[in-house]
UniProtKB/TrEMBL annotation:
Protein name (record): MarR family transcriptional regulator
SUPFAM superfamilies per the UniProt record, alphabetical: Winged helix' DNA-binding domain (SSF46785)
Organism of this sequence: Novosphingobium lindaniclasticum LE124
Length: 188
């Protein structure tokens, strides 16, 4: 009984630590979004838009969303495995956005090749969708300074904010139930 209690306490601590780590990653991402755009002094409109997105993101971000994104991505892979068909559930743009959102939260870089693999479609199809997402200003490409053959992709400020908005609206009740503030459930 004592071992079970200790395991439960350790698990609760681990979950809290994961939440804190995700909050720190979100804060770092907001700082990165604000500074990366501010580095281009010629485009004041983009800089102001990114600052507004960062403010909105700060008020919406929640550590549980990266876990929901992971679960969503895994659910999509599981469907194809269970139904034994990759053709039934194709939505490469969403898979790419999920992969990039998870990567942003984990502070890791995603190469174009990796994004193509993560989309679970042929490379030509994935590259077409990456181009479409870039034209929609949902992701950006970055050249690897150490290897000219490699290009990375990441969510743009607009793409990151859109993913936050999606998970905020999709998980509103989960986040509210987790909120320790008194009376928050009364808002439901």
């Amino acid at each position: 009984m004592e071992k079970t209690d200790q395991l439960m306490r350790n698990r609760a601590k681990a979950i809290r630590l994961i939440g804190i780590a995700n909050e720190l990653l979100a804060m770092a991402r907001e700082l990165e979004i604000g500074t990366s755009v501010a580095a281009d002094p010629l485009d004041i409109g983009t800089r102001i838009e990114a600052q507004e997105v960062a403010k909105t993101s700060a008020s919406q971000d929640h550590p549980v969303w990266v876990e929901l994104a992971r679960q969503t991505y895994e659910d999509r892979r599981r469907r194809a495995k269970i139904f034994q068909s990759d053709d039934l559930f194709g939505e490469p743009a969403w898979d790419i956005l999920l992969d990039l959102f998870i990567a942003a939260k984990e502070r890791r870089r995603v190469s174009v090749t990796s994004a193509c693999i993560g989309s679970a479609v042929p490379s030509t199809t994935a590259l077409r969708w990456i181009t479409i997402l870039q034209k929609q200003n949902l992701l950006v490409r970055e050249a690897d300074t150490g290897d000219a053959r490699r290009v990375y992709v990441k969510l743009s400020a607009r793409g990151y904010a859109a993913m936050l908005e999606y998970f905020a609206s999709a998980s509103r009740s989960v986040v509210l139930l987790d909120d320790p503030r008194p009376g928050i459930l009364a808002a439901l």
